[in-house]
Amino acid sequence: AVRVPLVGRVGLDAVISLVPVVGDLAAGALSLTLVARSLRYGPPAALVSRMLANVLTDLILGAIPVVGVLADIWFKAN
Predict the structure, then answer these.
(1) How many CA atoms lie within 13 A of 30 on its CB side?
(2) Given CA atoms 14, 18, 24, 30 in this order, what sign does their dihedral have?
(3) In whole angstroms, what is the distance from residue 59 CA to residue 1 CA?
(4) φ, ψ for residue 2 (rounded to 5)?
(5) Contact (Cβ atoms closer than 8 angstroms) between residue 54 and residue 77
(6) Distances, alpha carbon 53 to alpha carbons 5, 12, 41, 66, 78, in Å
(7) How far apart are CA 7 and CA 28, in angstroms?
(8) Is pLDDT of 7 > 80?
(9) pLDDT in tens, 36-59
(10) pTM for the full model?
(11) pLDDT per residue over 11-32, tens digit each?
């Protein structure tokens, strides 16, 4: 978590997403990296599907200009 003035502590995803387009793509890439690393431990397919759905939801919500940043603060994909 990162401390942001007037808002408090938010996830790194919300801070990165402040940069239009590139920030959302970078946050998505980081999220997919976490999913890929988790595959080493052999999680059930249902869990991997849920993780990928969270990443996709985060990318879709992040694509909406102002709402995307607020969604990143509220919705924790990781």
Answers:
(1) 15
(2) negative
(3) 19
(4) -120, 140
(5) yes
(6) 31, 19, 19, 22, 11
(7) 23
(8) no
(9) 999 999 999 999 999 999 999 888
(10) 0.77
(11) 777 788 788 888 888 988 999 9
Distance CA 4, CA 48 (A): 31
For residue 33, the model assigns a pLDDT of 95
- 61 Cβ contact partners less than 8 Å away, ≥ 6 residues apart: 67, 68, 71, 72, 75
Interatomic CA distance for residues 11 and 47, integer angstroms: 22
Are 27 and 17 spatial neighbours (Cβ–Cβ below 8 Å)? yes
- The Cα–Cα gap between 24 and 70 comes to 13
Helix, strand, or coil (residue 8) = strand
The encoded tokens of residue 43 equal 């999680």
